[in-house]
Amino acid sequence: MQGPEAADGGSSPRVPEASNALGTEPSAYLRQHAGNPVHWRPFGDEAFAFATARDVPVFLSIGYAACHWCHVMAHESFEDRDTADFLNANFVAVKVDREERPDVDAAYMAATQALSGEGGWPMSVFLLPDGRAFYAGTYYPPRPMPGRPSFRQVLEAVADAWHERRGAVEENAETLARGLAASLPGAAVYLDGVPEPLDPALPGEAVYALSADEDAAYGGLGGAPKFPPSAVLEFLIRHAAVPAPGGPTPGFDAGTPAQARSLAGRTLAAMSRSALFDQLDGGFARYSVTRDWSVPHFEKMLYDNAQLLRVYVHWVRLGGTPGYPAAEAADVAARTAGWLLASLGLGSADAGDGGLSGPLPEALASSLDADTVVDGVHAEGASYLWTPAALADVLGEGDGAAVARLMNVGPRGTVSADGSPLHPGRGLSAGEAELWQRVRPLLLAARSRRPQPARDDKVVAGWNGLAVAALAEAGAVLGQPRLAAAAGRIAQYLERVHWRPGANGPGTLMRVSHDGVARGIGGLLEDYAFCAEGLIALYAASGRTRWYRLAEDILAAACARFAADGTLQDTAGESEQVANALGGRPPLNPFDDATPSGAAAFAGALLSCSALSGSTEYRALAGSILALLPPLATRVPRAAGWLLATAQAALAGPVEAAVVGPDTPERAALHLELLRSPSPGMVIAVQPDADEQGPPLLRGRQAAQDGSPLVFLCRGMVCGLPVGSAGAVRERLNSMAG
To answer: Residue 70 and residue 83: Cα distance in Å, rounded?
Structure first.
């Protein structure tokens, strides 16, 4: 239905003095829209008060800097003067960076899916001035398409409904809010009482369910679009490392550790040999558009690569399989770590060749864009595409033709007429590997001379916490101390910039910083959990007690912020509008998405901290969260990967390792043996200097009478006799795994 024809039509409200207000915003995504003729405002009380004063609805547009279709809609509609004039006259336009405000994104994604049956970005939502949604969709084209109206048609229809059928609009918003409050798939975690013990058969049953969802032809889980199942892979590797005690439930063919190992290996191999993995520079794209992993969606995200780095490192630690050897995974991990530091590193000079030499960054940026701007036009993946002719130009006819065959570059591009991404789709023979190692530097140098994708430089606390854990463990397992040093640098940045200690109580962790200054909302549960997890991993690798103490402080603050009323929440109620949209405070979301659920990660960090500290309270809190798992383990295991991984660690103990004695090469060898063990969720405490006090796990543990270092291996703070050699550590850990 057609609405007001133009901005100066009789039904349009008077437009107060206004302008685009995004120019001073720190978010790269918001600044991308600062030059639009649309009078954008950032999300906040001021914008909604402005809508109330004007008596107009809010148009809420949600996206992120690396989003291809966000760029498309911006160019087609938000840069168009006529469209902007109509939007400014009839709405208050609000822009949200979903990575800065995942609480806003989650709330309005639920509304969009309920209203339209679809979800994605850019998200386009129309709201009452109190934040309740009444109409929503995603991308709208500039001209009508089959089954999809143009953006201008949508604007006109909504403006017409606002003026002519206001009562129906408000009733629709209220009905939606009530429906969302009643139907959102949240879960309640009550933190008092004694949690039920975990069923040891659950992990095996989940492996069976996951195996049924494997794509037997191309690897991975499910069909297109195909995402890297990072949290699920972590669970599979943990299950493969230590069989859970007990057996399958009667009448149920539970998955086995061998099945878990095989499934994980096939998935890891398929991803790293595909176009999802940047074969030249390292790092993984967000997802594959195709079932066979041959056409990636080219944005490269910190959260994906931090998780995948850790998973590939853990595969190396597990020992690999004949089909996917540990050595091949180690190369993928090293190149991914190098890419993280070189391409996302902030706050120092260039991190050097591959990020494995040169100055270390202070923190890591959020993403590289899916698009590259070529001659003023956004072209998806343009930096990464090759034709046979382009390969021959760099390598010569012979090598160019050989690499084109090896890397699946044909005369017809798989992404566009401009070419295909490089990927072998299988393991390489010795001769092929030699060819590839010889030509890869030449191709990478040639690619570096092309226009490059933009980078979103915001620092997200939780995602950097994920990277701290991955880099700390990669340094030990891969034998690259610089990676562990990089983890320490990033942890220092998080402590200095994002952490605000409380004067007389718990501190606050800020979610986002730009240029070394934290701004915006406090962190969500996931930020606290990911940072605590990363700091505990860094303490295990470095033995520096300060990181254990900071993890303790962050977990204490999380308990006060998100669990003060006896139930657990993902947010601390940052926005009244979000609560209005959902008919109340958002429910706890137990499901993994691109990152582990905040609740699952919190349970994992609590479990680790309780193993180091002996805290029965933290162990009980972790158990209360793990009580969410039984109905999810076999029904939706792909969405419960981190809960399953944490449950596997809990069923294994986790094993507690106390390393005592003077800081000598002998102690370092014992420490390294522990760091390279695949024991799920194992915590490691290292005796500090004399003037420091380590975690309670170290209390009463002493070196041998001759001063030789020892390792105490424990469960529940109850330890066996200490051992003093790497071989004895390995043997004892194997005996504890059954």
So the answer is: 16
Output b/e per residue, 143-169; b: 16+ Cβ within 10 A: eeeeeebbbbbbbbbbbbbbbeeeeeb
Mean pLDDT per segment of 10 residues, for the chain of length 738 residues?
30 55 91 95 94 97 91 94 96 95 91 90 96 94 91 96 95 91 68 82 94 96 95 97 54 70 98 98 96 95 98 97 97 98 82 60 95 86 95 98 97 89 96 97 97 95 98 98 97 98 91 94 96 98 97 97 86 85 81 95 98 95 94 94 97 96 96 97 92 91 95 94 96 86
The residue assigned the tokens 């993946």 is 381
What count of residues does the chain have? 738
For 395-550, where are the E strands, in sequence order? Answer: 455-456, 459-460, 499-500, 508-514, 517-522
Q: Give yes or no for a cis peptide into 42 (omega within 30° of 0).
A: no
- Sheet of 367-368, strands arranged across: 300-301, 367-368, 455-456
- Given a contact cutoff of 8 angstroms between Cβ atoms, the answer to whether 128 and 50 are in contact is no
Measure the CA–CA gap between 201 and 195, rounded to whole angstroms: 17
Q: What is the DSSP code string of 572-610?
A: ----HHHHHHTTSSPPB----SSS--HHHHHHHHHHHHH
Beta bridge partners of 588: 187
Tokens standing for residue 45: 């009380």
Beta strands in 242-389 (DSSP E): 287-288, 296-297, 300-301, 345-346, 363-364, 367-368, 371-374, 377-380
CA distance 81 to 110: 31
Closest CA to 272 of 306, 309, 223, 299: 309
Rg of the chain in Å (alpha carbons): 26
pLDDT score for 187: 62
Which of 144, 149, 163, 203 has its CA nearest to residue 3?
Answer: 163
Residue-wise pLDDT for 518-549, tens only, equals: 998 999 999 999 999 999 999 999 999 999 99
For the record, the structure tokens of 377 come out as 């036009």
Helix (H, G, I), strand (E, B) or coil at 339: helix
Q: Give CA–CA dist 387/411, Å, rounded.
A: 7
Angle at CA of residue 737, ends 733 and 738, nearest 5°: 140
Q: Token pair for residue 555?
A: 């977990």
User: How is 452-468 classified by DSSP, letter by letter?
Assistant: ---EE--EEHHHHHHHH
Tell me which residue of 557, 414, 456, 562 sits closest to 498, measured CA to CA: 557
Nearest Cα to Cα of residue 105 among 685, 691, 593: 593
Amino acid at 691: D
Q: Is the peptide bond before 678 cis (omega within 30 degrees of 0)?
A: no
Amino acid at 723: V
Element (H or E) spanning 660, and its range?
strand 656-660
Q: How far is 709 from 721, CA to CA, in rounded Å?
A: 13
Give the Cβ contact number of residue 428 at 10 Å.
15
Query: How many angstroms separate the CA atoms of 699 and 303, rounded?
Result: 36
Terminal-residue alpha carbon distance, the chain: 68
131 and 605 Cβ atoms separated by less than 8 Å: no
